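Q: What residues go here?
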């Protein structure tokens, strides 16, 4: 994969600091992630006010609208205009969205996830070997380029059934990595129902719901799932696995999609 010159792109900045180790102190320079405010509007109505790493913004715009349930396909998008802090999208329908929108640093909003809601379950038929999933963790490490230098990023990958990476991104927010990875995969014309999503970080309900709205049947992480995420995945017939750290994983739901020798 291509290495990112994050300093040149303005994704990181360098700061002079004092590093302490026990009673010893020394001057040092550290690389720190930047953030940008995004005011996201759809057909003239604001649907998001959040912080994001200023990278892969077209992919983010597409993925955000899909993962938050505002549109069902990329073909609905007529125009994307990016002029930070504003991202403006127009669709063919020109519909004005309503309801709750994202207003935080991570991009998760739980739109339409009221207590007692019942999502239409995803279909069975897609299966993965456990070994393929376990091998994905090395790929997360490969794509966590800026995280290795700063410790301030999350990573998400969309991977096909053969274990090939379709899209891989870093961002300051867990949720926005999902948006960007989904958008990149859709730009490539990927059938997301034949892919799985690998994330760094925890899996609450709004993270799981993003994958569901994108039609991704399997979601895994090297970290823990939350009760809300597990309950939603069960209702949606999704496969959810956490603590994926070779040779171990914890399968919370949808074990029928994971094959063991």
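A:
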């Amino acid at each position: 994969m291509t290495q990112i010159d994050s300093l040149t792109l303005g994704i990181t900045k360098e700061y002079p600091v004092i590093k302490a180790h026990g009673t010893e102190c020394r001057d040092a320079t550290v690389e720190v992630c930047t953030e940008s405010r995004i005011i996201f509007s759809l057909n003239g109505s604001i649907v998001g006010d959040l912080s994001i790493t200023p990278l892969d913004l077209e992919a983010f715009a597409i993925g955000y609208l899909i993962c938050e349930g505002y549109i069902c396909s990329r073909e609905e998008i007529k125009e994307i205009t990016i002029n930070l802090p504003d991202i403006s999208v127009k669709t063919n329908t020109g519909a004005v969205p309503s309801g709750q929108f994202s207003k935080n640093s991570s991009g998760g909003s739980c739109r339409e996830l009221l207590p007692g809601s019942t999502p239409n379950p995803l279909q069975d038929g897609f299966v993965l070997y456990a070994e393929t999933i376990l091998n994905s963790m090395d790929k997360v490490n490969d794509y966590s380029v800026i995280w290795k230098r700063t410790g301030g990023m999350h990573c998400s990958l969309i991977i096909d059934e053969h274990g090939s990476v379709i899209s891989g991104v870093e961002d300051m927010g867990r949720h926005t990595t999902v948006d960007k990875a989904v958008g990149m995969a859709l730009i490539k014309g990927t059938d997301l129902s034949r892919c799985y999503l690998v994330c760094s970080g925890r899996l609450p309900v709004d993270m799981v719901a993003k994958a569901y709205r994108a039609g991704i049947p399997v979601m895994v992480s090297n970290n823990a799932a939350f009760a809300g995420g597990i309950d939603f995945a069960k209702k949606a017939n999704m496969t959810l696995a956490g603590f994926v750290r070779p040779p171990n994983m914890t399968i919370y739901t949808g074990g029928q999609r994971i094959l063991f020798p």
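A: Context that may help when evaluating the design: The helical segments are 6-9, 57-67, 130-143, 145-150, 174-187, 205-213, 227-235. The mean pLDDT is 90.
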